Automatic annotation (TrEMBL), chain A:
SMART domains: FN3
Keyword presence, Transport: no
Name the record gives this protein: Cytokine receptor-like factor 1
Subcellular locations according to the entry: Secreted
Organism: Mustela putorius furo (European domestic ferret)
CDD domains found in the cross-reference section: FN3
A GO term, aspect molecular function: cytokine binding
GO BP annotation list: negative regulation of neuron apoptotic process
Family named by the database record: Belongs to the type I cytokine receptor family. Type 3 subfamily.
UniProtKB/TrEMBL annotation, chain B:
GO term, biological process aspect, one: nervous system development
Highest taxon above the source species: Eukaryota
GO CC terms in record: extracellular space
Disordered: region residues: 1-21
Gene Ontology MF, one: cytokine activity
Major subcellular site: secreted
Protein species of origin: Mustela putorius furo (European domestic ferret)
Annotated coiled-coil segments of the chain: none
Location relative to the cell: Secreted
Descriptive protein name: Cardiotrophin-1
Length: 439, 205
């Protein structure tokens, strides 16, 4: 967990004790380094500045004379030599620097401003922290897994980049009593998140907020008030099984078990199922699977492998009125629909252009056909000739355009050839219907 | 290299119970460890300079090589010393490094809190230095050359004694100090690898 940072006032007071004596021994006992004998001090040391502001700095040389002068000294910033016109000699031992309109720091450890002797050796350094104060974090959202913990996520302020290390601290307390607590497990589900693993109360609201702090200031989010019971999620349903429904080519049965972690609690679970064809990325979602642990998918393509997933929303725990939070999807389970050997009306059927893999085109056609029959036929005997007549009629009314397939060799995809419809078995027409002249 | 410096023969050993295979194995293992840690030390240095920003890491960057309390770089005459003496110096340096690496890690945790890999490498380097130091001392013991030469001041004790009057250390000097410590770690691990390599049977004389 990143160390918390206090405001700018306290930054200079925080130094690890062991480092200081090492540096003391270095400074007091060091043999002369570099080209010789001189050391220097840059002022200010490690300043913190707003983006766009200016900086006046000095490099004061001290050490044994002769030669301890400011003549020939120069500055670099992050390794780049600064233009001479930005510097001026204040006195024999001091070189000044004026920087304007500073950009945000290149690295969080600070920009390296270095004072060099004429021969390039380093005399002194200072680190600049140029950035922005934090903006107010917002969009806090929280969820509890099985009422045992609480995880919260937030968005860090409108513009995000402060160019300074910004510490985010998630705080929480019981609404009407209790002390402020600080979340300790950060970055559990992304860079701006925190996990509270235990000791959470139910049936009483919490107040939750985020504090952002960096060297230039701090900001606090709005307070989110919630009851743990209103933000419960759970594990995905286990033991998802997908199987065929006898020999039905267009159906699969999906069964699962309700999440065991919440089995002892009264709640009305909602479930969602999604499925897709093996070689597709498009999922179809079945939404209205409420409080059941099985479902039958229909309208599927024969002889096709489908991937299926299920998720659960444990809403209404202990009477909570809130919507609840969906679990993750279960691991995909695959199964295939059977394919009959007899080439029926679906055999060799064209898929609709860009059609959904789960919609049976022949089935849809037959459904439309039966609807048409109710209007136009006065007997129940059906025949493929009648079906052909209907298809021709549909073509005339431009209703079959969306059912054509754009690739492959299905003859029915070609509007010009649709009227031929070769190889269809024909049964004698025995009902009163005007045969279409297009056949 | 003379036989005196690189030889493993112990004229006082009982030839019927030869400790040599055990000693050779220990030397080989320690040498392999040193070789591995030399690689890690190089990676640590690269990771370190990356997070300090330019000019750290640039070719030609040469901050003052100020000495670090309790530890100095291998002396120019190190390679000419007898093998046991070299190994003693290696072991002493490896013992002095962990607290220095811990100091650097704590400072970097403030300067680069979003650099977990750097912080982890610094933590691991301290552990690795301890492990290699212990392994070198075991080799010295097996060579019968592990007598100490008087009390060695613990670097932490030295540091603590001087704590009170120290001025506040700026960020830039802290970055330079960390670079120095990481550099010393690499130098001493590499030096240890070289010294052990000369003892490995069949290794360079």
């Amino acid at each position: 967990m990143p160390a918390g940072r206090s405001g700018p006032a306290a930054q200079s007071a925080r130094r690890p004790p062991l480092l200081l004596p090492l540096l003391l021994l270095c400074v007091l006992g060091a043999p002369r380094a570099g080209s010789g004998a001189h050391m220097a001090v840059i002022s200010p040391q490690d300043p913190t500045l707003l983006i766009g502001s200016s900086l006046q700095a000095t490099c004061s040389v001290h050490g044994d004379p002769p030669g301890a002068t400011a003549e020939g000294l120069y500055w670099t910033l992050n390794g780049r030599r600064l233009a001479p016109e930005l510097s001026r000699v204040l006195n024999t031992s001091t070189l000044a620097l004026a920087l304007a309109n500073l950009n945000g720091s290149r690295q969080q450890s600070g920009d390296n401003l270095v004072c060099h002797a004429r021969d390039g050796s380093i005399l002194a350094g200072s680190c600049l922290y140029v950035g922005l104060p934090p903006e107010k974090p917002f969009n806090i959202s929280c969820w509890s897994k099985n009422m045992k913990d609480l995880t919260c996520r937030w968005t860090p302020g409108a513009h995000g980049e402060t160019f300074l290390h910004t510490n985010y601290s998630l705080k929480y307390k019981l609404r009407w009593y209790g002390q402020d607590n600080t979340c300790e497990e950060y970055h559990t589900v992304g860079p701006h998140s925190c996990h509270i693993p235990k000791d959470l109360a139910l049936f009483t609201p919490y107040e939750i907020w985020v504090e952002a702090t960096n060297r230039l200031g701090s900001a606090r989010s709005d307070v989110l008030t919630l009851d743990i019971l209103d933000v419960v999620t759970t594990d995905p349903p286990p033991d998802v099984h997908v199987s065929r429904v006898g020999g039905l080519e267009d159906q699969l049965s999906v069964r699962w078990v309700s999440p065991p972690a919440l089995k002892d609690f009264l709640f009305q679970a909602k479930y969602q199922i999604r499925y897709r064809v093996e070689d597709s990325v498009d999922w179809k979602v079945v939404d209205d699977v409420s409080n059941q642990t099985s479902c039958r998918l229909a309208g599927l393509k024969p002889g096709t492998v489908y991937f299926v997933q299920v998720r659960c929303n444990p809403f209404g725990i202990y009477g909570s009125k809130k919507a609840g939070i969906w679990s993750e999807w279960s691991h995909p389970t695959a199964a295939s629909t059977p394919r009959s050997e007899r080439p029926g009306p679906g055999g060799g059927a064209c898929e609709p252009r860009g059609g959904e893999p789960s919609s049976g085109p022949v089935r849809r056609e037959l459904k439309q056909f039966l609807g048409w029959l109710k209007k136009h036929a006065y007997c129940s005997n059906l025949s493929f000739r009648l079906y052909d007549q209907w298809r021709a009629w549909m073509q005339k009314t431009h209703k079959t355009r969306n059912q054509h397939r754009t690739r492959g060799s299905c003859p029915r995809a070609d509007g010009a050839r649709r009227e031929r419809l070769p190889n269809h078995p024909v049964v004698a027409w025995s009902c009163g219907l005007q045969p279409s002249k297009s056949i | 290299m003379s036989r005196r410096e690189g030889s493993l023969e112990d004229p006082q050993a009982d030839s019927s119970i030869s400790p040599l295979p055990h000693l050779e194995a220990k030397i080989r293992q320690t040498h392999s460890l040193a070789r591995l840690l030399t690689k890690y030390a190089e990676q640590l240095l690269q990771e370190y300079v990356q997070h300090q920003g330019d000019p750290f890491g640039r070719p030609g960057f040469s901050p003052p090589r100020l000495p670090v309390a309790g530890l100095s770089a291998p002396a120019p005459g190190h390679a000419g010393l007898p093998a046991p003496e070299r190994l003693r110096l290696d072991a002493a340096a490896l013992t002095a490094l962990p607290p220095l690496l811990d100091v650097v890690r704590r400072r970097q945790a403030e300067l680069n809190p979003r650099a977990p890999r750097l912080l982890l490498r610094l933590e691991e380097a301290a552990r690795q230095a301890r492990a290699l130091g212990a392994a070198v001392e075991a080799v010295l013991a097996a060579l019968g050359a592990d007598e100490t030469r008087g009390p060695r001041p613990e670097p932490a004790v030295v540091a603590t004694n001087a704590a009170a009057a120290a001025p506040d250390a700026g960020v830039f000097p802290a970055k330079v100090l960390g670079l120095r410590v990481c550099g010393l770690y690499r130098e001493w691990v590499s030096r240890t690898e070289g010294d052990l390599g000369q003892l490995v049977p069949g290794g360079p004389a």
